[in-house]
């Protein structure tokens, strides 16, 4: 009897211990399958490249594979709609740039609300932009470029990568601030626009350093007039900003953030955020982003609150610019 009682007592203790541990184990089990990182643009493009650089170290932190999925179309809004409609469990994450803030002004029939349909993970990195011209444009500096554009008006051609592209947005803000009226020339992507600039078919282009960096370093195929951010770039320390050359307050950068569907558990958001923070401290990630002339944001910006604030302010900023230019995407 005594031996049976001991066995019974031990069994009861084991059951009690299992019962107490079960909730903790359940809470700590997420994620228990791969996480999908949705990219709104084509494989091989700047945003896709960064997503794939981040996916590996984020997967290590989460203990699951992070799979990059390219959901392309409608200026990135198809990807936004896909994540907004996904199950709010944290397994589907959107990696999007400033297009998240410009979509409401550009698309009349947008099927999601950037402010109401998402929870936020945090800001990730910024890609500065640069102002370039064809090599044989008869100007030597930024002030001469402004004078040339004001004198020649719509005879000057300014290329961009299509309606809603960051290069078009930069062009719209630039022309509105300096009071010039060049002819806007849309292309199907940044590559063709830059190629025609180098070939002398168009006069001016404003685009991100992930595209223009190698050409600037080459130094023989275009003229470069400045950086569109308030601070100079570590990768091009001798390149002045437009702000310091007289265009005060001019600030355009391709900022990036991560989002999940509204209602995602805070614990899951916290784990994704922690994985993102760890990835941004990874030496390989730092090296690859530096090679792309991209700048990792400070740790205080890798928060849901910071991303929400950035999105709200950028929506206000670009809504005014886009509506003033009467630009509408289909």
From TrEMBL:
**Protein family membership:** Belongs to the UPF0065 (bug) family.
Record's keyword terms, sorted: Signal
Question: Could you name the domain of life of the organism this protein comes from?
Answer: Bacteria
Could you tell me what this protein is called? Tripartite tricarboxylate transporter substrate binding protein BugD
Leader sequence segment: 1-26
């Amino acid at each position: 009897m005594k031996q049976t009682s001991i066995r019974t007592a031990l069994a009861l203790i084991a059951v009690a211990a299992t019962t107490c541990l079960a909730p903790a184990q359940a809470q700590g089990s997420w994620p228990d399958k791969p996480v999908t990182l949705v990219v709104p643009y084509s494989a091989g493009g700047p945003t896709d490249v960064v997503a794939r650089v981040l996916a590996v170290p984020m997967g290590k932190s989460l203990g699951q594979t992070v799979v990059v999925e390219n959901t392309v179309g409608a200026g990135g809004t198809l990807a936004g709609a896909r994540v907004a409609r996904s199950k709010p469990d944290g397994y589907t994450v959107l990696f999007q740039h400033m297009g998240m803030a410009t979509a409401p002004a550009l698309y009349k029939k947008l099927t999601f609300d950037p402010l109401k349909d998402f929870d936020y993970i945090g800001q990730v990195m910024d890609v500065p932009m640069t102002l370039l011209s064809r090599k044989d444009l008869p100007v030597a500096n930024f002030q001469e470029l402004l004078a040339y554009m004001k004198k020649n008006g719509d005879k000057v051609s300014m290329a961009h990568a299509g309606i809603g592209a960051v290069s078009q947005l930069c062009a719209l803000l630039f022309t509105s601030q300096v009071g010039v009226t060049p002819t806007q020339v849309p292309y199907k992507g940044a590559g063709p626009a830059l190629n025609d600039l180098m070939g002398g078919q168009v006069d001016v282009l404003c685009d991100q350093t992930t595209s223009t960096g190698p050409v600037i370093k080459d130094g023989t195929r275009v003229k470069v007039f400045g950086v569109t951010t308030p601070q100079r770039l570590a990768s091009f320390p001798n390149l002045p900003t437009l702000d310091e050359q007289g265009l005060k307050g001019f600030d355009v950068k391709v900022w990036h953030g991560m989002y999940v569907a509204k209602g995602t558990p805070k614990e899951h958001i916290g784990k994704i955020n922690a994985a993102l923070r760890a990835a941004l401290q990874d030496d390989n990630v730092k090296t690859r982003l530096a090679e792309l002339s991209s700048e990792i944001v400070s740790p205080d910006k890798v928060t849901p609150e910071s991303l929400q604030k950035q999105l709200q302010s950028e929506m206000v900023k670009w809504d005014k610019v886009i509506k003033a230019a009467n630009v509408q995407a289909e």
